[in-house]
Design goal:
alpha/beta; TIM Barrel; 2 domains; five-stranded parallel sheet; four-stranded parallel sheet; 16% strand
């Protein structure tokens, strides 16, 4: 069961308010999906995710295939049961991990051969195998295997990469349909790098496959923001209006506003959780580096306008103390706050579209962030180094 309905089109630009229905629940769009790569959103329990308003989360096919193994997860009742999450899950295919592990993999028409970053063991991922892995995981929405070309590669390589991704998508679709029982959904992925003609061709040929939803990949790999905007406009102008559009790996409030304005419905990113572990907090008043010295004895919550558990109960001074003490509670409270902010931001964004004031909401949000950016300061405690340098 998968349905998408556009409930409201913004009076200005391409913003739209929609609703996705799946067997495990309804998803109000535009939506942000917290990332739970290893079958867990770092530092959060499933109950806490529900409390901060998560409607759907993302997990990673590549990592779960390597550890603990998709067959084990299937034997234990599937990913939802395994991690005690009863709402929808989207699984990405491992395509980005193929991109990021360039030194450990070889790509050919059949698929990808790579060495595990865990133990060096050899593995081969094919489009068909990626679908079968996601069948075992039991995710509600699955992604096809794709290649995400690196920024700066030439037109010839990007065209070959695009054609390979399209070929793999057809094979994923064939494999998916051969075992479709109506409980899962396969999206397509558009690529094309940073070439207008290839972005257009990729979107057109992907849309011809008539899938329930479409992802836009390759636009969160360090490129210039203007390039992202122009490539996104091309893709959204071609992809069907009656299907959800998912911009992969993009996750700042400014990115949300830019993409929603062009008709995007779904987002995911590790930014709020990773930044939380590094003491970088998100607020309506602008970003805050809790490690800064000015918060040493600050009794206020992170944000007076925030209703999250951390802001209701703890001061900036306490959160700064936890960060420098390297307490586990630092990551937990900071993550609760950042995810609450992101999910509440999307809730308010949906309301703005419903009330025909999206452009006003976007303008006000951008102005607040520009005016209140929290610049780094002398933040070190005597004899202490900053914590939180992990990159997961």
């Amino acid at each position: 069961m998968f349905q998408f309905e556009v409930l409201k089109r913004g009076a200005e630009k391409g913003a739209r308010r929609g609703r996705i229905k799946t067997a495990r629940g309804t998803i109000e769009t535009p939506v942000f999906m917290p990332v739970g790569t290893q079958a867990t959103v770092k530092a959060m329990t499933p109950e806490e995710l529900r409390e901060v308003g998560a409607q759907i989360i993302l997990s990673n096919t590549f990592h779960l295939y390597l550890r603990p193994g998709d067959e084990l997860i299937a034997r234990l009742g599937g990913l939802h049961h395994f991690m005690a999450w009863d709402r929808p899950i989207l699984t990405d295919s491992g395509g980005f991990q193929v991109f990021s592990l360039a030194d450990l993999r070889k790509i050919n028409d059949e698929g990808v051969e790579f060495r595990s970053p865990l133990d060096g063991s050899k593995h081969i991922l094919t489009p068909e195998k990626v679908v079968r892995i996601q069948r075992n995981l039991g995710s509600d929405i699955m992604m096809p295997l794709d290649e995400c070309p690196a920024p700066g590669v030439d037109h010839e390589y990007t065209r070959k990469s695009m054609n390979l991704t399209l070929s793999w998508l057809q094979r994923c679709k064939d494999e998916f349909q051969s075992g479709d029982d109506g409980t899962q959904t396969l999206f397509g992925i558009c690529q094309g790098g940073f070439f207008e003609d290839l972005r257009r061709e990729s979107a057109e040929r992907t849309a011809e496959m008539d899938l329930p939803g479409y992802s836009i990949g390759g636009l969160s790999v360090g490129e210039d923001r203007d390039k992202t905007r122009s490539m996104l406009e091309i893709s959204c102008s071609i992809l069907p209006e009656d299907r959800p559009r998912y911009l992969m790996g993009v996750g700042t409030p400014e990115d949300f506003l830019m993409a929603v304005e062009r008709g995007v419905d779904m987002f995911d990113c590790v930014l709020p959780t990773r930044n939380a572990r590094n003491g970088f907090l998100l607020t309506d008043e602008g970003p805050m580096r809790i490690r800064n010295a000015c918060y040493r004895d600050d009794p206020r919550p992170v944000s007076e306008s925030c209703a999250c558990y951390a802001c209701r109960n703890f001061s900036r001074a306490y959160l700064r103390h936890l960060y420098y003490a390297k307490e586990i509670l630092s990551s937990r409270l900071n993550t609760i706050h950042n995810l609450h902010f992101m999910l509440d931001f999307m809730r308010r964004l949906r309301e703005a579209i419903e009330q025909d004031r999206f452009m006003e909401f976007a303008r006000d949000s951008r102005e607040r962030w520009r005016e209140n950016a929290d610049e780094p300061s002398d933040s070190g405690e005597p004899g202490e180094a900053e914590s939180g340098t992990d990159t997961n």
